[in-house]
Model the fold of this input.
Amino acid sequence: MLDLKILNDNVQKFINENIGKSISKLALQKNPFPYLNWLSVLNQIEAKSKAREKLPTWFATENIIYPAKISIEQTSSEKTASYKASLVDGETLIDLTGGFGVDDYYFSKKIKHITHCEINTELSMMVAHNFTQLNVNNIKCYAEDSIETLKRLDVKWDWIYIDPSRRNDEKGKVFLLKDCLPNVPENLDFYLAKSKSILIKTAPLLDISAGLSELKNVKAIHIVAVENEVKELLWEINPLFSGSTSIKTVNILKDRLETFDFTLNQEIDYLPYTKPQAFLYEPNSAIMKSGGFDEVGAFYKVNKLHKHSHLYTSNELVPFPGRAFEIRNRIPYNKVAMKEFLESKQANITTRNFPDSVDSIRKKWKVKGGGNTYCFFTTDVNNDKIVLICTKI
Done:
């Protein structure tokens, strides 16, 4: 059960005074609150510290109760939750995997009635308490299996939202939706019968082709990055949709959204391969995840250095979704050129379609990191290994 003694004024004051401090050092102190489990107090400090940047609304609100820090690490950020909310509208939405409720908080700004399902009773009570603190009154919380909630409530939902969790955490391994909880492919027909639209969130590790093979009626896939780090994939399913799936890439930056959209299997205008010209472009991480390498080149009318390099070039500067550079020099990757231009100097190094790693290049040529010079080690249209020495725009 939820222990509300954690909301005692003195306890909350202690938590706020120790935000950001070393938990291992605090753990050595004597518990100043004998009526509370000391580990629970420490968890509140650690989890709230994690929330400062990721969940500023929660952090700034009094008397929020936090789950284990891993739940804060795994929950959506406010930035990605806000983007998800831009995709939905209507009267009703049910979240089958409610968790800490960050997505539902933002959904509640767009949808009149939200249902939050969370099988963990304590977490469900915590979220309900927090919604009260956040002055949200259009979300109902149910502490039960979401399948049972769907069966029990006689509703045709405008949206079903699902964030399946992986049953194991084998890093580096491709995973399938059928290996997650809930098993979306197994229950998809049931979900479609209960809703007008479905939105599924998955980790960026999920392969897009694998996801498409397990699902149907996928209207769009949103690849969402924050500050050039892909955070999640969003699968928009409509039971009436048939045709080619749209791929929507978005990179959420401090001052703007960087977007690029295309359709799977669309015909691509001829994309020429050329030697480096005046400017160099590196696609953002959302585009890299999408695989739309020819699509982005054709849309922005830039040339590609090599089929497998995924670097682009042009003589005129274009507003490309990613990083742009002015090429100051182009050198062959050989001992003479490296000794003259880069050995023992300072530069930021990126490799694309190149046999050597960044670390091995730095070690071999004694190149220090940082500075205003950006070097791309890559392969050109003639399959020659080259280095592009650039200045960031």
About this structure: The chain has 15 helices and 18 strands. The mean pLDDT is 95.
